[in-house]
Amino acid sequence: MGKDVKGRRDFMGMALGGFTAIVGGIPALYAMKRSWDPLPSVKAAGFTTVDLSGAQENVLNVEKWRGKPIFVLKKSKDMKADDRDVVIGSDRYHVSIGLCTHLGCIPAYVADDHKFKCACHGGEFDSSGHQIFGPPPSPLEIPPFKVDGTKLVLGEAGPEYKKMLDAGLTV
Ligand code: FES
């Protein structure tokens, strides 16, 4: 019987702990949501076409492709160029699946620091999606994409994506 009471107490402690974690997470979720800014996009048959012509530097856009969040970040001139950048004209973009490569949480973009921070276990990624701190074992993954003028077609593997894939840069 003593064991039962202890079991119940453990359960209550766990339930309260979970509740506190949820309440604590609400402002973070709200801040994260506010910083997400989708661009005009069209979804059809497994593809999402995103018009990048209105993208602003250092503002994270979160698109949706096959139920996954896709990060699209137009890099500012002071951000380091990277082989993983999607280059359109004279602009560079970071495009990745917005799921932390540790355990799959959605990292938030901290514009002032030019990095992505994962609230789950403190993992961090730079503006090219490379893991720079904490437990994530690999960079943010790059989804198949094709560049079509100023548009980005998510879900179609264009030559720019295939080049990255062959070079082992997409994961
Ligand atoms: S899920 Fe992102 S650091 Fe663990």
Helices and strands, in order, run as HEEEEEEEEEEEEH
pLDDT averaged residue by residue:
84
Treating each run of at least 4 consecutive H or I residues as one helix, how many helices? Answer: 2
Q: Summarize the amount of helix as a percent range.
A: 10-25%
Class computed from helices, strands and strand pairing: alpha+beta
In the predicted model, the low-confidence regions spanning at least 5 consecutive residues are: 1-26
Short description:
The protein is of the alpha+beta class. The protein has 2 helices and 12 strands; from the N terminus they run αββββββββββββα.
Summarize this structure as a short list of keywords or feature phrases.
single chain, 171 residues, alpha+beta, four-stranded antiparallel sheet, 2 helices, 12 strands, 30% strand, globular, disordered N terminus, binds FE2/S2 (inorganic) cluster
Description:
The protein is an alpha+beta fold and 171 residues long. The protein is built from two helices and twelve strands, in the order H-E-E-E-E-E-E-E-E-E-E-E-E-H. It has helices at residues 2-34, 159-166; strands at residues 41-44, 47-51, 60-65, 68-74, 86-88, 91-97, 108-110, 115-117, 124-126, 131-133, 145-148, 151-154. A four-stranded antiparallel sheet has the order 1-2-12-11. The chain has a four-stranded antiparallel sheet with strand order 3-4-6-5, with no helix packed on it. The radius of gyration is 19 Å and the shape is globular. Residues 1-26 have low confidence and may be disordered. Bound molecules: FE2/S2 (inorganic) cluster (FES). Residues 100, 102-103, 105, 118, 120-123, 134-136 line the site of FE2/S2 (inorganic) cluster.
